[in-house]
Write a structure and sequence with these properties.
With 271 residues, the chain is α/β, with parallel strands linked by helices. It starts with 10 loop residues before the first helix and ends in a 10-residue tail after the last helix.
Length: 271
């Protein structure tokens, strides 16, 4: 059984999340001219001038080969690291201005994570694995378990709350991990290579789950090396050599703007 020890105060962040919920135009995530340089001889520039924003309810794929900077970008988006320069904002909160304690609270209340490795405790039930996603958000245990049932229902595992992870298939275990990411009703879910440990059919079912959650309004970013997976997302961002080289949202905006400038059929003088 888990306790409430170690829960961090989150009132200021909770108030921010409430304000965010009432602001339809506020981006969930903003990355503004972000760079990340790792010290060494010579220094390694992992990210260079990356900028984009993610709106509420988007389903985004960030794709790139090994060494493209996508993992570093994930760490910055998830507040697991700080940029060398530039700005990262989550629901309007400037990450660079928060203390380590506040960043921990931000992750606990605003961001859900799904990883390639499931990171489930084999000695706990599915229910307790999911409920532990709220442990550091200061939620009482009874409420944690009730919300865990709701999250398991969202991923189709409401009938397996008392199973242990070793009694589940790989796809089911990843669904438990997704439920854990959802249980705190985060502003954004970051999924790092979520199908990497699954066979193709099971991986497709997880991508289908993300589509279903997107239809419910969940904001999801999938980080992947697989272009086919990224192509299934509504929006695709491509990384190469530490830079963003393509954003389908920009391409769509260009096409839309061009279409708006095109003559209507009534003014078309073609013969």
């Amino acid at each position: 059984m888990t306790s409430d020890a170690g829960a961090v105060p989150t009132q200021r962040l909770d108030d921010n999340l409430k304000r965010f919920a009432g602001s339809a135009d506020q981006p969930v995530l903003e990355v503004d001219e972000v760079a990340k340089v790792y010290s060494g001889e010579p220094p390694v520039s992992a990210l260079r001038g990356v900028s984009f924003s993610i709106a509420r309810g988007e389903l985004v794929g960030i794709v790139g080969p090994s060494g493209s900077g996508k993992t570093t970008l994930l760490h910055l988006m998830g507040t697991l690291d700080r940029p060398s320069s530039g700005h990262v904002r989550v629901t309007g909160l400037e990450v660079g201005r928060l203390s380590d304690r506040e960043l921990s609270a931000l992750r606990a209340t605003h961001i859900g994570f799904v990883f390639q490795q499931f990171f489930l405790s084999e000695h706990q039930s599915v229910l307790d694995n999911v409920a532990d996603g709220l442990l550091y958000a200061g939620v009482p245990q009874v409420k944690r378990r009730a919300r865990a049932i709701d999250a398991l229902t969202m991923v189709g595992l409401e009938g397996r709350p008392h199973a242990r992870p070793n009694q589940l298939s790989g796809g089911q275990r990843q669904r438990v991990a997704v439920a854990r990411a959802l249980v705190g009703d985060p502003a954004i879910v970051l999924a790092d290579e979520p199908t990497g440990n699954l066979d193709q059919a099971t991986g497709q079912s997880i991508l289908g789950l993300f589509k279903d959650l997107h239809e419910l309004g969940v904001t999801i970013v999938v980080i992947t090396h697989d272009r086919d997976i990224a192509a299934r997302m509504d929006r695709r961002i491509e990384m190469l050599d530490g830079q963003m080289v393509f954003d389908s949202a920009d391409n769509l905006a260009t096409v839309t703007a061009a279409a708006s400038r095109a003559p209507t059929s009534g003014n078309d003088h073609r013969s």
